[in-house]
Design goal:
The structure holds two protein chains of two kinds.
Chain A (H helix, E strand, L loop, with lengths): L1 H13 L1 H19 L45 H37 L5 E3 H27 L4 H27 L7 E3 L2 H13 L3 H11 L4 H28 L2 H8 L4 H9 L4 H25 L10 H6 L9 H27 L7
Chain B lengths: L1 H28 L4 H7 L10 H15 L8 E3 L6 H6 L13 E3 L5 H10 L13 H35 L4 H15 L3 H12 L23 H39 L2 H8 L4 H13 L1 H9 L1 H15 L4 H11 L2 H29 L8
Antiparallel strand pairs in B: 1-2
Helix pairs in contact in B: 1-15, 2-3, 6-9, 6-13, 6-15, 7-9, 8-9, 8-13, 9-11, 9-13, 10-11, 12-15, 13-14, 14-15
Classes of the chains: A mainly alpha, B mainly alpha.
Chain lengths: 364, 370
């Protein structure tokens, strides 16, 4: 943690581009946070049908009594300035939570899979059986039946009863069934779970289709909604972080201090939490910023294609899509595209400098 | 080599099966399908059909497409609670709701039909126009491949030349200019780049150098393939340029890094020491060694290329796989979507295998079985 902070402070002092990128990102964050309270004359979805397709700075159409469209308007007279600012807000509010969830899931899965390897995680047949049973019961009574009850407008008691059945079955399985099964000699045999191999296969399955195709295909099966899109993005993006966390954990596992900690009898959880995670902070930060940049691009691309994102959501991609009906309106592409590219550039500059300074890769 | 290839291919079959099954089941299990939207909910001025006749047509449609069958070999039917009972006793709960209602359907189900057809090589028919999916895909895949191959070849050649140029010691200035500009180019999203090119070179506002939309929409362009290609060419320039530009930064930085790493090796120092020109050192001694990691790069690159094809084909209205995907997504034409996903996954598997084999051929030290 302190090492990373030191690196960043050093970079801030030495590299001008890093300073600029940081300043821009800070500014963007603050702007996005306070945006609803800023005095912007138009809302992003407000139509002004008397002023459509106005180029930026349309001095000739300035009226003293009406607010001015500084950066022009699109085909429906929506104000470009408001759309660009609120588009930044959407981009940040989608990509940051997704990346946080992705970082958490990916790091946990990758670190634990690499930590346990293929042999270390052992379960008896009995506990495996009980776990499977409890999981099935949980999915059926805890998730499936409540959702059916909700969708068919049953009274709330159906949901509550079903969830309590789930809890009872899970408790019974662990407290009662497990000790019973453990009495059987045959079921006491230990089985090693190849956690690492399982994770690798899972990642291979997920990465066998390009992300964009996977998201497009999955989004086509569902109604366009921001929340479903966020779920889909988390669902498809975790593989990169998981792979990184796995590699970093394998690296740390070989180091002498880790061996010493194991020899001292530190618990598994503490080993991962105290000794593995702090050592992969820098690469994690790098993939985080890289991922945010990728997600911003992806979000704009999706809303440009008009798939998976409702048309009412303000986005840079939606504004850019306006060019389809009028190829002469260059500002529809140039302005949001410029801000999108600038944000991506700032994020990439940040991660590039952190990467080179923490010595994971040679400077190019 | 051959046993290894066969083994890999055999291993990839269950993998592709799993993937295709997941996508198929997901596409069928979610509510709302093509027919339901088109037939049942058409309350326009011109539709004179009554509600019952519409239901009849819908049932016929389900029968014809086999959508009335159960989805999988077994199913958890909707928990059965009779409405009448619920109305009379508002507070009492119907215990039947909580019993799992497992039903066995045998082989008469959608998944079984689909899988047997798939094994026979039949990908099903499109919901939209009833054509065989394999025919639609065959019609479209040529354009995509042409564009992808040309742009990839172009990008590789340019990236190679640029990195050879940059790796020479006295090119300080061009290093300072080219590397940062590649970095900037890398951060421009592909669809923005494509639209910028479109606005600059193919719109009435600026230069109108190239035709924009509609590759292959104007009938046959000539009898033999050469004339056809020449007719297609003006439509292809901007898409190919865009894909090349979008892929160039990553390729160049990777190759350049590989070349500079290899330049530090002992053999390149020896080559330099014996008085060879720097250019020759790079081309003859460094490049063959530096290109080894680049082989895997070209296949790692596939996802970006495919995603690029989707964007480019949509923007420039090229009838290819990518625009087909977007069209079928917008029309909810699931058989076509599943077909496309399957084709892309197969290509990825094959590309991965090819790169491994190539790598082994280029570097015999590598043991594939190890």
């Amino acid at each position: 943690m302190e090492m990373l902070w030191l690196h960043i402070k050093l970079l801030l002092r030495e590299k001008l581009s890093f300073r600029l990128a940081c300043a821009y990102l800070m500014l963007l964050t603050i702007l996005v946070m306070v945006l609803p309270w800023l005095p912007i004359p138009y809302l992003p979805n407000e139509l002004d049908l008397t002023h459509t397709y106005q180029a930026p700075f349309p001095w000739e159409s300035k009226q003293p009594d009406k607010a001015f469209h500084w950066l022009g308007t699109d085909g429906l007279g929506r104000d470009m300035l408001a759309n660009i600012l609120y588009g930044a807000r959407t981009a940040v509010f989608i990509s940051i939570p997704v990346m946080l969830a992705v970082a958490a899931i990916g790091t946990l899965l990758g670190a634990f899979a690499a930590f346990y390897g293929n042999k270390k995680l052992k379960l008896s047949f009995a506990s495996l059986l009980v776990l499977l049973l409890a999981f099935a019961a949980f999915v059926y009574y805890g998730l499936y039946l409540p959702s059916v009850a909700m969708l068919t407008d049953k009274s709330i008691s159906y949901t509550l009863v079903s969830i309590s059945i789930a809890i009872v079955i899970v408790l019974l399985a662990i407290k009662l069934l497990l000790p019973l099964l453990m009495k059987v000699q045959l079921l006491q045999r230990k089985l090693s779970i190849p956690a690492d191999r399982l994770l690798i296969r899972l990642i291979e399955l997920f990465t066998s289709i390009p992300k964009l195709i996977l998201i497009l295909a999955l989004a086509s099966f569902m109604a366009p909604s921001v929340y479903i899109l966020i779920m889909l993005l988390i669902f498809t993006y975790w593989t990169g972080t998981a792979r990184l966390a796995r590699a970093e954990t394998l690296k740390v596992k070989q180091l002498p201090f880790f061996e010493a900690a194991v020899a001292l009898g530190v618990s598994d959880f503490k080993l991962v939490y105290r000794h593995v995670l702090p050592n992969m902070l820098a690469p994690l930060v790098v993939t985080f910023t890289f991922g945010v940049a990728g997600l911003m691009t992806l979000e704009s691309t999706l809303s440009f294609l008009g798939i998976g994102i409702p048309g009412t959501l303000v986005s840079w991609g939606r504004t850019i899509a306006g060019i389809k009906s009028n190829t002469g309106a260059w500002w529809l592409v140039l302005l949001p595209g410029f801000f999108l590219a600038l944000t991506v550039l700032a994020l990439q500059t940040f991660s590039h400098h952190v990467l080179t300074s923490t010595g994971k890769r040679k400077a190019s | 080599m051959l046993p290894y290839v066969l083994k890999r291919l055999a291993l990839s079959v269950p993998f592709l099966w799993l993937l295709a099954s997941l996508v198929f089941l997901l596409s069928r299990s979610l509510p709302g399908n093509f027919g339901e939207e088109r037939i049942l909910q058409q309350d326009s001025y011109y539709s004179k059909g009554s509600n019952s006749s519409r239901q009849q047509v819908y049932q016929d449609y389900l029968q014809r497409t086999g959508l009335n069958l159960p989805l999988f070999y077994f199913s958890l039917a909707e928990p059965s609670v009779s409405q009448a009972v619920e109305v009379t006793e508002q507070i009492g709960l119907d215990y039947r709701f909580f019993l799992p209602n497992l039903q066995w359907h045998g082989t008469l189900n959608q998944y079984h039909n689909w899988l047997t057809n798939l094994v026979k090589g039949n990908l099903g028919t499109s919901y939209k126009n009833g054509d065989a999916v394999s025919n639609i895909l065959l019609n479209r895949i040529g354009n995509t491949f042409l564009i992808l191959l040309i742009s990839m070849a172009l990008a590789s050649v340019v990236a190679l030349e640029v990195s050879v140029h940059l790796a020479q010691q006295r090119r300080q200035l061009s290093r300072k200019l080219i590397l940062p500009s590649l970095f900037v180019l890398d951060s421009v999203p592909m669809f923005v780049l494509a639209l910028l090119l479109l606005v600059l070179f193919a719109s009435p506002a600026f230069l109108q150098l190239f035709p924009v939309y509609g590759l292959g929409y104007y009938g046959s362009m000539g009898s033999n393939w050469w004339q056809q290609l020449a007719g297609k060419f003006p439509y292809m320039v901007l898409p190919i340029l865009c894909l090349t530009l979008a892929n160039l930064p990553y390729l160049t930085t990777q190759i350049y890094r590989s070349v500079t790493d290899t330049l530090l090796a002992d053999f390149s120092r020896t080559a330099k020491a014996k008085g060879l020109q720097e250019k020759k050192v790079i081309r003859k001694h460094v490049l063959p060694n530096a290109l080894l990691p680049v082989i895997t790069l070209l296949t790692d690159f596939l996802p970006a290329l495919v995603a690029g094809a989707v964007i480019i084909e949509t923007i420039f209205a090229i009838p290819g796989m990518g625009s087909l995907l977007i069209d079928s997504i917008l029309a909810r034409d699931y058989p076509v979507i599943v077909g496309i996903v399957l084709v892309i996954a197969t290509i990825k598997v094959l590309a991965h295998l090819t790169s491994d084999v190539l790598y082994q051929m280029a570097d015999p030290r590598l043991n594939l079985n190890g």
